[in-house]
Amino acid sequence: QIPIDASWGKGIRVEAKDSSFSLKLGLRFQTLYEGEKYLESGNWNEQLLIRRYRLKFDGYAFKPNIKYKMELGISNRDTRSGGVDEIGHTANIVLDAVVKWEFTPGVELWVGQTKLPGNRERVVSSQNMQFVDRSLVNSRFNLDRDIGLQLRAVQGSGVVFREAFAISMGEGRGVVVDNPDNGRQYTTRFEVLPMGLFKSKGDYVGADIERQPSPKLAIGVTYDYNKNTPRSRGNLGSFLMDTDNNFIYSDLSTWLVDAVFKYQGLSWNAEYAHRSSSDEVAGFGYGKGFVTALGYVFKSNYEIAGRYTTVEPIGVNSSIGAAEEYTLGFSKYIVGHSLKIQSDVSYMDTTNDYIRFRVQMELAL
Amino acid sequence: QIPIDASWGKGIRVEAKDSSFSLKLGLRFQTLYEGEKYLESGNWNEQLLIRRYRLKFDGYAFKPNIKYKMELGISNRDTRSGGVDEIGHTANIVLDAVVKWEFTPGVELWVGQTKLPGNRERVVSSQNMQFVDRSLVNSRFNLDRDIGLQLRAVQGSGVVFREAFAISMGEGRGVVVDNPDNGRQYTTRFEVLPMGLFKSKGDYVGADIERQPSPKLAIGVTYDYNKNTPRSRGNLGSFLMDTDNNFIYSDLSTWLVDAVFKYQGLSWNAEYAHRSSSDEVAGFGYGKGFVTALGYVFKSNYEIAGRYTTVEPIGVNSSIGAAEEYTLGFSKYIVGHSLKIQSDVSYMDTTNDYIRFRVQMELAL
Amino acid sequence: QIPIDASWGKGIRVEAKDSSFSLKLGLRFQTLYEGEKYLESGNWNEQLLIRRYRLKFDGYAFKPNIKYKMELGISNRDTRSGGVDEIGHTANIVLDAVVKWEFTPGVELWVGQTKLPGNRERVVSSQNMQFVDRSLVNSRFNLDRDIGLQLRAVQGSGVVFREAFAISMGEGRGVVVDNPDNGRQYTTRFEVLPMGLFKSKGDYVGADIERQPSPKLAIGVTYDYNKNTPRSRGNLGSFLMDTDNNFIYSDLSTWLVDAVFKYQGLSWNAEYAHRSSSDEVAGFGYGKGFVTALGYVFKSNYEIAGRYTTVEPIGVNSSIGAAEEYTLGFSKYIVGHSLKIQSDVSYMDTTNDYIRFRVQMELAL
Asked: Which is deepest, A3, A70, A343, B113, by most CB within 10 Å?
């Protein structure tokens, strides 16, 4: 048995005395119950599953300014995206495999596979979400993970600015075939934090469990151009083919604008997304969406939160369906986002209306 | 290098000094050779494979009364059950992902995916088996793992009673589709240990390697009702469909009765299983079976053991075939069940008789 | 947090104070960019992917002379070989699962799945390669991994001799079906090191990053007989079937001869391979090949290296295509083979000539 100094929440971390490397092990899983009552048919559909199961290794190697992150997704929902030829018809396990080199203070070069600098809701870890899961705006318009290079910079202390620029292959994580038609993806993001940094990196944590002692605001804008992608939503969605089994392509332009405000347990989030193309090819996910959420964490670490979401297609051939969703969430953060129970109930107004009830337990070491 | 106090068999365990969590890492694999001589055709079929390869994380989180277990099965035999649509057509890696909350002394609530409180032979870890593998009664009638809630209680010290009750989804581990027709599974188990607790939890360890200093007996009875399952053996087996690709269902009732006795190296086990339904639907695994085993561990940690198994179908449309098996096993427990070599030879009396020889090596950290 | 004495490169290792076991954790991944310019069509094909992602556990158990190695390959390129019925139609994750018992000094018995004693280029870890990847001679003729028994011995100190003999199933790693037609594989290897052992086991490390202080040479010869294999290249390649879906077999004889010389940063390697059969069955990989490489590591840990490769079929029905390849490699070993960037450019003279450019980053803990 190895007694260690750290307490839970800090993770299990080893560091070489000569500062030649560090390694932190993270382990977590989510058990999700989801039931949907379809209002027209009266049908009740339900699922109970291990929604996410993750193993994470991060730290630094050689020098503290060379960091790495290696995250694996192991549940069947995490890995089943690999069941197509382009992703090797195998379990798609590797989420992150990236090296982050801070070659000059405040500027990092990232090499490998990880999340693109897209909308805030996506970049917030699935461990740290305010509701049981991300919104429909995120699932339709997020940029997900990809493999490539990223340049990330941060400046300022009173007012903080962050910039990110990425070049990636454009078809998402785990692709093992040639880059179709060599169409790459270009992502640019700007962020401004006019009231300075959030306590405990709270701008990328759902719910104000940190109870920010002073008001904090962050605004982000991402523009993404995904040239010649054959996937319906760029980095995600089906690989689209014509009747001769050749890829069909579209050049996708995506705007993602988001804001978060937090103060003493109160949090407000909003995101706007817009994906379009000069060539509207049938089957691609052109559309726009808006989501906003308001929540309050009581001192007892119970939270109540509400969310409104709307998405709609652009053009007549989009794969995006129109929907409006109203969500009310209740959470109990037993040990922050490391041991929590979250539930929400939603009314979905779409072609086949339903009421959805979900409850999820998260355990993270 | 980190020198640690513990010796092998205790596992590699870290614990926070403030008792906010503990983590134990377990690693193990089995290398199995299996050869079968078919008596009529004279054919010799053989396999050599990594039978099981497991990674296990367990411990407590937040408080010592909140335990977790996260076990992964990684060999191809462990993961290939995921190759159907209902399990995501991906590697079915996650075995256990469960939180066990002892909310009052002696009573635990389990949430997540793990073994159901079924027959003893199944609940004994595959690391701790007396023979190379479990019996035919187990493979035909066990309840395996499922996802849901379990309530577990224990009382008494002279005479010990244990009770378990589970509600689960009913189709086994790793299912990612909606619960078919919402038919849940209900499992109840009672155990009595009239001579008190076994040393080193020996009632759930194959072979009396603990050499119980006084005679110990445990008797268990499980009743399971799996409503509207489309799988031939409830939590296991094919998903059955009609010619229009709609699920076919049956309501399965299963009785499982087992007993184990151990004393100074001697062990005796017996199990009876019975699965039936009010509606006998073609293709489901209705049937009954009985297995009994007797073994003796010499002080040199060699063991000789014998096992008799019989299974037979109920009704004319069962997927269970009649079989009788006679098994003789020899084992050498080098370091208990952590480093051992086991072999057995069986005569199988079924529609196509064969003699089977197996030898297996287990290494467990 | 656990402060540890070791520095990076030694890995993260725990050892019990009573010497009952040790465990070393290894983690690594490679990010590979590969672009090919086809000279006739002018097409440019490119890939960027996580080429390898590995988790490794090794150490000793019970006594220091019982060693184990458990390595997992997790990237989609590592696991996709499992997508055939014979390998379970699942992710083929387990690379090594082997116990090595030194039952008498200098002689080890290996049980389980690991690399066969084949050509040096294959046995050198993919972490320790001199170029971005192994040569065409290796990909066409290597013996890869298999499951079975190996006997390994070493003698001498001035002049060192090594012998290895293996019996294995003959169809490669992860097979879950019966051994086709019971045709086993027999491998024998002899090595001589006339100038004694290399510093830091440099005979199985690509590039002379150890800067051998005195000249060192190693010569190896392997003969392999793979009886009744249905795979085109023995342990690798397609499972060949006739039009009735019965396996087609061939008895493959393979000779592998290799040599390595190293001195003060200079390294020279050469390998010859020859695979034939008395029965030339259409679709099997009969052929021969030769590769030689010369490299020099500067004291700044930059390396320049060149490689010439040629392969050609034997007979008219071989699955091997004729090819000649000229490769020029540049590497920077930042922390030996644990943090490095490698690149190479190749001209491939085959039925469809191309120039290939590759760059790869390796991070290994």
From this structure: B113
